[in-house]
């Protein structure tokens, strides 16, 4: 069994390798934004407006130029499970609270 030190050292080595470009040594959460949006049958602009996301971010996520942060990833996963439920929840949030 590995010691706590060995586990920490291995994790640090993986982090350094990943930071230096070795993508095989890290994990990234993935969200298929395009598939989620397509399932809602909305355009990028309509999807962004419905779920209060910047349309540029949706475009960048779909084209692989950037990835959703953890909060956006959670929202996107919720949309994938129950888009109408998320829409109902958003409708109950006061507009000034959304921004």
Structural account:
Helices cover 66% and strands 0% of the residues. By secondary structure, the protein is mainly alpha-helical. It folds into two domains: 28 residues; 68 residues, lambda repressor-like DNA-binding domains (434 Repressor (Amino-terminal Domain), Orthogonal Bundle), CATH 1.10.260. Helix 5 crosses helix 6. The longest helix has 16 residues. It is elongated and about 50 Å long. The termini are far apart.
Secondary-structure map with pairings?
Elements: H1 4-19, H2 33-40, H3 44-50, H4 55-62, H5 70-81, H6 83-92, H7 95-98
Helix pairs in contact: 2-5, 5-6
Keywords for this entry:
434 Repressor (Amino-terminal Domain), single chain, elongated, 99 residues, mainly alpha, 2 domains
Strand content: under 5%
Extract low-pLDDT stretches: none
**CATH architect. name of the largest domain:** Orthogonal Bundle
What would CATH call the homologous superfamily of the largest domain? Answer: lambda repressor-like DNA-binding domains
- First CA to last CA: what distance? 51 Å
Indicate the overall shape. elongated
> How confident is the prediction overall: mean pLDDT?
90
CATH topology of the largest domain: 434 Repressor (Amino-terminal Domain)
Reported for the largest beta sheet, the result is: none
Helices, by number, come to 7
The number of domains is: 2
User: Would you tell me the structural class of the helices and strands?
Assistant: mainly alpha
Q: What is the H/E order?
A: HHHHHHH
Number of strands: 0
Rg (C-alpha, Å):
18 Å
> Share of helix among residues?
55-70%
Instruction: Please identify the top-level CATH class of the largest domain.
Output: Mainly Alpha
């Amino acid at each position: 069994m590995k010691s706590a030190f060995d586990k920490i050292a291995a994790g640090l080595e993986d982090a350094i390798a990943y930071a230096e470009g070795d993508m095989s040594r890290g994990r990234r959460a993935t969200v298929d934004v395009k598939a989620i949006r397509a399932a809602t049958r909305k355009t990028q602009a309509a999807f962004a407006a419905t779920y209060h996301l910047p349309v540029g971010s949706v475009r960048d996520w779909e084209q692989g130029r950037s990835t959703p942060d953890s909060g956006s990833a959670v929202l996107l996963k919720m949309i994938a499970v129950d888009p109408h439920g998320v829409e109902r929840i958003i409708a109950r949030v006061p507009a000034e609270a959304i921004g």
